[in-house]
Amino acid sequence: MNGSRNFKMNPIRIEQIRKFDAYKEFNGKAIKEYDAKEVYGPQITDKDGELLDKHDSFYITTKSLLVLFQIMGVMPIMRVAKHAQTTKRTTFNWISKSTLWAYLVWSLESIVVIRVGRDRLANFQQNSNKRFDEVIYNIIFLSILIPHFLIPVASWRHGPQVAIFKNMWTHYQLKYLKITGTPIIFPNLYSLTWGLCVFSWALSFAVILSQHYLQDDFELWHSLAYYHIIAMLDGFCSLWYINCNAFGTASKGLATNLHKALEAEDPALKLAQYRHLWVDLSHMMQQLGRAYSNMYGIYCMVIFFTTTISLYGSLSEILEHGLSYKEMGLFVIVGYCMTLLFIICNEAYHATRKVGLEFQVRLLNVNLGAIDRNAQREVEMFLVAIAKNPPIMNLDGFTNINRELFTANISFMSTYLIVLMQFKLTLLRQGTRKMLKAITSAFFNATTPGTTEMEDDE
Fold first, then answer.
1. Distance between CA atoms of 448 and 37, rounded to whole angstroms?
2. Residue 29: its pLDDT value, please?
3. Which residues contact residue 153 at a Cβ distance below 8 angstroms, ignoring those fewer than 6 apart?
4. How far apart are alpha carbons 355 and 386 in whole angstroms?
5. Fewer Cβ atoms within 10 A, N terminus or C terminus of the chain?
6. 3-class DSSP state of 277
7. What pTM was computed for the model?
8. 289: exposed, middle or buried (C-beta count within 10 Å: 0-12, 13-18, 19+)?
9. φ and ψ at residue 89, rounded to 5 degrees
10. How does pLDDT run across 214-259, given as a tens digit for each residue?
11. H or E stretch at 78
């Protein structure tokens, strides 16, 4: 669709829709008088602070992951006190207690990460085996350390945008409740979030300890530099999974309540309110990508680079020395990285489909003959809003997160892998020629003295 080129709603288009809502005729009289109170939903003021907290089921059910990120120093956003008279229930400040704690944790972790990085680099420099494969192998574990140093730039710097995204969820739920009369229910999300928090660290220990036992030079104390990095990657994957499922749940609830709008006393007015609810949901999906754009962008690049190098290293060693524990360790890294990338792309695809296509199909199935002309126009406006403001998971203009990204990564990795393997085969051929020349030279050197002795005897 043409609207997919601009995932942000055009301000001119928004103003046109507002004017249309304000001045069109509804049951013979202008709807302008319902502008603020009805069409755009309830106005949320600072006095609604406690009410926002009370109905913020998304925050309540996912609080464990937010607290985990605070403890790890990854995303130091804070929740204001319940009695605070403000609509901004989630905040970010560079000198808050949570941020100061993040500085401390990151600094202590940096000491360990730098020591391990220097130790691995020193071991490689002192090693007499400077083969290309050995260089590649050392680069793998040095690259995994990179996300730690990018936390201040990729995560903390976007703290204000993350706070905006959290507040959008908080406001949306109260607005949804007042318009539809029913709250958004997230079934099993509380236990799922807790389970993912525990699983993130458990998986981190499993992946890193497997490298210690499968790799010869991966010392146990080196693992201290990797646990929090892998757990952070797992946590961001969990965060993406939870938000994508929440978008799908909210869209499903809105679609289920469509019959209420069609059966209401003023169906056109109710449909207009639902349309604005849907647009808010689409904006939240766009804000998710904007808030975590740097983090997930670096996330995808590290996964792409590490997977390509690990796959090359494992295949190269198999060709030269056969399958061993070292190659099994590299395959563990490949499987881990590709699984994370697939989950992110697949969940984004499902969220986009549920909020966009499936909701659009629900609207297209509305029996227009059973509703009045004003309601029919609202259905048309609803479809136009979906077409002009598609729910795309976009990393602030860098790339769209969907299944195409996953297949594109596989395609790029295959291309680079073929080039690297051609380089490897060239080295093997050169090594074979050198070995044959050495054998031939040794053979002639061994036979020449014998020939001389026979000539002397004669």
1. 105
2. 41
3. 294
4. 9
5. C
6. helix
7. 0.81
8. buried
9. -80, -20
10. 887 788 888 899 999 999 999 999 999 999 999 999 998 888 888 8
11. strand 78-79
Picking from 37-46, 222-231, 294-303, which range would have the lowest pLDDT averaged per residue? 37-46
CA pair distance 275, 342, nearest whole angstrom: 32
DSSP result, 288-333: HHHHTHHHHHHHHHHHHHHHHHHHHHHHHHHHHH-S-HHHHHHHHH
- At 259-288, the pLDDT tens digits run 877 877 778 888 888 888 999 999 999 899
The number of beta carbons lying within 10 Å of the beta carbon of residue 34 is 18
DSSP for 435-449, please give it.
Answer: HHHHHHHHHHHHHHH
Tokens of 366: 């509305």
**C-alpha angle 118/119/125, rounded to 5°?**
85
- The amino acid that residue 211 corresponds to is Q
Residue 458 neighbours by CB under 8 Å, 6+ apart: none
Per the structure block, which two tokens stand in for 156?
């903390």
DSSP lists the bridge partners of residue 29 as: 26
Q: Which residue, chain included where needed, has tokens 């998710």?
A: 288
Structure token pair of residue 303: 């996964």
DSSP annotation of 42: P
